[in-house]
Amino acid sequence: MICRRPLERHSVRFRRTAAALAALALSATACAGVSRPDTALDWTDCGDGFECAKLGVPLDHGKPDGERIQISVVRLPASGERIGSILVNPGGPGGSGVEYARSARSVLSEAVRARFDVVGFDPRGVGGSSPVRCLSSSELDAYIGLDGSPDSPAEVTALEEGSRRFADGCRAQSGKLLPHVGTADAARDMDLLRAALGDKGLTYLGKSYGTQLGAVYADLFPGRVRALVLDGAVDPSLSPLELNAAQAHGFEIALDAFLEDCFTAQDCPFPGGSVKSAREKIAGLLREADRRPLTNGTGDGRQVGEAWTTLGLVTPLYDHQSWPVLRQALGEALRGDGTTLLRMADLLVDRREGGTYSNQTEANMAVNCIDGHFPRTSTALAQAARDSAVDAPLFGPSVMWSSLPCTYWPVKGTPQQKIDAPGAAPIMVVGTERDPATPYEWSKALAKQLSSGVLVGFDGDGHTAYLTGSACVDRLVDDYLIKLAVPKDGTRCPKIG
Fold first, then answer.
1. Do 408 and 434 form a contact (C-beta atoms < 8 A)?
2. Would residue 373 show up in a list of annotated catalytic residues for this protein?
3. Which residues pair with 58 in a beta bridge?
4. Closest by Cα among 484, 404, 444 to 241
5. Structure confidence by residue, pLDDT tens digits, 399-423
6. Is the distance from CB of 148 to CB of 159 less than 8 angstroms?
7. Any idea of the CA torsion for 264, 267, 270, 276, to the nearest 10 degrees?
8. What is the pTM (predicted TM-score) of this model?
9. Catalytic residue among 435, 461, 474, 478
10. pLDDT by residue (tens digit) across 151-179?
């Protein structure tokens, strides 16, 4: 999304956001069956009950006997009577499945962990699996800080130049890998991992972009599906710009939900206001940050301009438990202090202490650019940005312009084909009705496209539904994963409280 690319990620980091921010406040099908995994996974102890291994897979699945790359894998053995393995993916693209699985005790219920080995892997190009690299940390600071909703020729030129540097850096540092980091490649890796684990069928929990990975897997290998939970779904039938537009609108809806809740709190920075007037104040804040950056109390010298301010606003919209801190951050920002917003933005882009980054942003861009067709000129993207401002005036332009590096990408993208997974076992699609990053309409669309899709809706806020507070969702997911009990299509779980 706004991290200069569509961001549909779910990470355990956003399940920790409320606590972290509170602390801040206090202070190719034919080839699919040919590739073979390395004969066995050599597991070694890597602490806290986890075991780690590397899986060798072909760089190019069309050349199964050619160059190989290593996929990082981690597992937490089942604590009870084992059914098999459950693979997990947090989304992104660019999210670390190893990091996600390391938080298995908060990612999956105790009942599921008793019956399954929890297995996470970094998809190719991500984290510990032949990571895509493009820019230095200081260059990423500069790139992310570029005005993502340019309103002058100079700002457009700066964004164009920065996006070209991003694409050129990826070609220079990761050119050999770039053609092979698409979702279909990762899905084929996932099947090799399933085979290496000894599981006849895949059991899987994918969130956000992880739903696209799961759906592509099901389409490539429908006969190898045991149980897939796709939570916070991406609609694979939409073009990249259609996805951008829908996501931007989703964040507008989430912002309105936050504001309605804000008016009931004593510390709301918009006392006695209306959604309309509060939105006008937020729009004014973004305009002011564009003209004169907010104060940065972190001491790292970054300018808290419109881009960082927008990212800081977006981050807590992923998790309604973080809304109290967003109230505080906006109150500070309206007084000129952008420190808390900047720290929230750092969570979103995975900027770490000392100013270093994971490769999340680079991997996200690499996968998105190869998974779809993008406009070949900035003029076309500028028009899409103007169009998106009609339905999403605060977030639309930034979301659209975030795809600009794909205009200059060194590898031609491949548009997603129809996904229906004919013959697959029932696949459970879970959607949250006011999900900001993956709008509920996407979950409904994916469930309909999958030949065996079953939709479960949740009347809730925030990104994804499982283990976010709904006992109804949790029970349905657990029963499906463990007992293969398929819920009725269209089941709706009520609002919490």
1. no
2. no
3. 68
4. 404
5. 999 999 999 999 999 877 789 999 9
6. yes
7. -40
8. 0.92
9. 435
10. 999 999 999 999 999 999 999 999 999 99
